[in-house]
């Protein structure tokens, strides 16, 4: 996600059964749970990746000796990282990191944390790497190094058939997850443009989670939502035709895995990911989640655009 360390561009849309049963009631007060986004389940997890000795030998000894890669993650952020009905952490990011860890001969150890605490925990040595749809930004590169693995932009969604898009949203209510770049940067700039032109401001409706923001649009409590493109596309799929894309994806930027500044682990992760790209495993995982549009050909260390 773009912006400062606490600016997470999207925290992804939860499809846990508890939300399907109670989320809409909590937001609407009187709406039936049948109005909430439906749950279709998640794709089958990808097959494990085999260890590649040449790449595994590049792992820092302090990590290699434990046999474990400790990964800080914040959920829910579907389809990248979220919990399935059994409580297991799943998603595109999870499948990809599992494959990377397998290539490195390590066992992934996912530890949940507040998003804003992941980078400080990497700096402090609690986590080896972060995996939470971080946008690689120049500001964050001052704190940690990033290995890029995906390209995501911002994409709006609206109720099916509604006449709204990012360029004609003056006076509209737009739902976002709080502290994301959509709330802190994108929508304030769009709203200012509206008022500068003598038009009504955009009403930014912020929620603590992306699932609540999505549900607000489904229930008619907001006119549209703005989130990271993978999140929006997945939310549209899960609502079974209630939502559709509003405009096109814009402001694309790389997702990256943060590691300690100067850590040789960055090179290990990069080589493992390049191996998965070259062998087709990366494409297989992305396709499994319907995220082929965001695939990259060549990962880099610190590839921030802004």
From TrEMBL:
Ranges where the Solute-binding protein family 3/N-terminal domain occurs: 68-293
SMART domains: PBPb
Signal peptide span: 1-26
Keyword tags: Signal
Highest taxon of the lineage: Bacteria
One Pfam family this sequence matches: SBP_bac_3
InterPro entries from the UniProt entry: Solute-binding_3/MltF_N
PANTHER family referenced in this protein's UniProt entry, alphabetically: ARGININE-BINDING EXTRACELLULAR PROTEIN ARTP, MEMBRANE-BOUND LYTIC MUREIN TRANSGLYCOSYLASE F
Protein name: ABC transporter substrate-binding protein [Rhodococcus jostii RHA1]
Native source species: Mycolicibacterium parafortuitum
